[in-house]
């Protein structure tokens, strides 16, 4: 027995295609904007010591932010466990008050 050709091809051409991935309007795409993107330009210091100081300061700031992010990520399981236990206590309290 032969199946209709539409089974093999997918949707009929009369129906609109379904886009499962939400896409922004074309006007919002950054490479289609009229104004060019603004870049931060860091001037190259003439002094090598100043250059090293800037690099060291940026590295220190980046490492501090990375450690803070790591601490926040490590705290997530404890926060989740605390919220789950609070939710369980609240639901158990609601059940006992109903009884």
Protein architecture, described:
By secondary structure, the protein is mainly α. It contains 2 helices and no strands. It has helices at 5-9, 48-98. The longest helix is centred in the C-terminal third of the chain and has 51 residues, at 48-98. The mean pLDDT is 77.
How are the SSEs ordered, and which strands pair?
Elements: H1 5-9, H2 48-98
Task: Please name the defining characteristics of this protein.
99 residues; mainly alpha; 0% strand
Percent helix = 55-70%
What is the alpha-carbon Rg in Å?
Answer: 29 Å
Average pLDDT rating: 77
Order of helices and strands: HH
- Uncertain segments are none
Report the sheet-strand fraction: under 5%
Summary of the model, kept short:
The chain has helices at 5-9, 48-98. By secondary structure, it is mostly helical.
């Amino acid at each position: 027995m032969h199946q209709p050709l539409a089974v093999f091809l997918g949707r009929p051409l009369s129906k609109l295609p379904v886009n499962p991935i939400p896409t922004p309007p074309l006007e919002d795409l950054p490479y289609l904007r009229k104004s060019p993107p603004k870049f931060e330009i860091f001037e190259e210091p003439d002094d090598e010591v100043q250059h090293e100081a800037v690099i060291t300061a940026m590295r220190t700031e980046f490492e501090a932010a990375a450690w803070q992010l790591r601490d926040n990520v490590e705290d997530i399981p404890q926060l989740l466990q605390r919220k789950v236990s609070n939710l369980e206590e609240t639901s158990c309290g609601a059940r006992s008050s109903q009884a």
